[in-house]
Specification:
Distance between the termini of chain B: 41 Å
Strand content of chain A: over 45%
Number of strands of chain A: 11
Order of helices and strands of chain B: EEEEEEEEEEEE
Strand content of chain B: over 45%
Order of helices and strands of chain A: EEEEEEEEEEE
Distance between the termini of chain A: 35 Å
Mean pLDDT of chain B: 92
Mean pLDDT of chain A: 92
Oligomer: heterodimer
Helix content of chain A: under 10%
Structural class of chain B: mainly beta
Largest sheet of chain A: 7 strands, mixed
Helix content of chain B: under 10%
Structural class of chain A: mainly beta
C-alpha cells in the first residue's frame, strides 16, 4: 500500500459539466476526508466518512456536491453543473478512527479547473 | 469556534540561518497540533505533531516546534534553513475531544529560503 491515491490528478472541464473524482485511502484506514483548497488558502473541510457512513458535511458542500464511499473502501466526490468557483484543489485524506491524533495521510489531490 | 492563525503570509530567510514560522490557535480543551508542508501542485506532507508530553517536538527534515499553552502558540522552527525548505507551510489543529478528527487549517505561510 503506497498511501492515499487520488485520480485524476488534473481535470479541466467546461462550466455546467459534471465531474467525478476518486480517492483510494490506505486500506486499513476507516475514516476518509475530503477537503477543498483554493489558491492562497488553507484546506477547508468538506465531508468525512467512517466506513461507509457519511457522518458530517460542511456548509461548503452545496447540493451540487455529492460524496459516496460504497463498502467503506474508495470514495468518489461528484460535482454537478460545475461553476468557475468550483476551481480548486480537492484533497482526500484517510485515518484510523481513534488514532486521528496521529494525523492523517493526504493524497496528492485533484486540481479542478472550470473554464 | 476553533481557529488557527498564521500571521505571516511569507517568511524570507537566507540559507543557513534559523527560521521560524508562526502559528497561534484558538480551541476549547486540549489541542492536537500539526504542521504540514506543501510543495507546488502536491498534497500535504506531515512534518510533526504535538499531542501531549514534551512541549518541544521534533519532526521530519530537521524541523521542530514548540507548544506554548499560555501563548496558545505552536511555532515551527529549524536551526539552519535549506533552499529546498522553500514551500508552503500549514499549521492545523484538532480539538482534543473531537469525535470527527476534523483538521482546522491556518491560511498557510510561504517560506522562501534564498541562497
Amino acid at each position: 500500500d503506497t498511501g492515499v491515491s487520488q485520480n485524476p490528478r488534473h481535470k479541466i472541464t467546461k462550466r455546467g459539466q459534471n465531474v467525478t473524482f476518486r480517492c483510494d485511502p490506505i486500506s486499513e484506514h476507516n475514516r476518509l476526508y475530503w477537503y477543498r483548497q483554493t489558491l492562497g488558502q488553507g484546506p477547508e473541510f468538506l465531508t468525512y466518512f467512517q466506513n461507509e457512513a457519511q457522518l458530517e458535511k460542511s456548509r461548503l458542500l452545496s447540493d451540487r456536491f455529492s460524496a459516496e464511499r460504497p463498502k467503506g473502501s474508495f470514495s468518489t466526490l461528484e460535482i454537478q453543473r460545475t461553476e468557475q468557483g468550483d476551481s480548486a484543489m480537492y484533497l482526500c485524506a484517510s485515518s484510523l478512527a481513534g488514532r486521528d491524533n496521529y494525523g492523517y495521510t493526504f493524497g496528492s489531490g485533484t486540481r479542478l479547473t472550470v473554464v | 469556534a476553533q481557529s488557527v492563525a498564521q500571521p505571516e503570509d511569507q517568511v524570507n530567510v537566507a540559507e543557513g540561518n534559523p527560521l521560524t514560522v508562526k502559528c497561534t490557535y484558538s480551541v476549547s480543551g486540549n489541542p492536537y497540533l500539526f504542521w504540514y508542508v506543501q510543495y507546488p501542485n502536491r498534497g500535504l506532507q506531515f512534518l510533526l505533531k504535538y499531542i501531549t508530553g514534551d512541549n518541544l517536538v521534533k519532526g521530519s527534515y530537521g524541523f521542530e516546534a514548540e507548544f506554548n499553552k499560555s501563548q496558545t502558540s505552536f511555532h515551527l522552527k529549524k536551526p539552519s534553513a535549506l533552499v529546498s525548505d522553500s514551500a508552503l507551510y500549514f499549521c492545523a489543529v484538532i480539538h482534543g475531544s473531537s469525535n470527527t478528527g476534523k483538521l482546522i487549517f491556518g491560511q498557510g505561510t510561504t517560506l522562501q529560503v534564498k541562497p
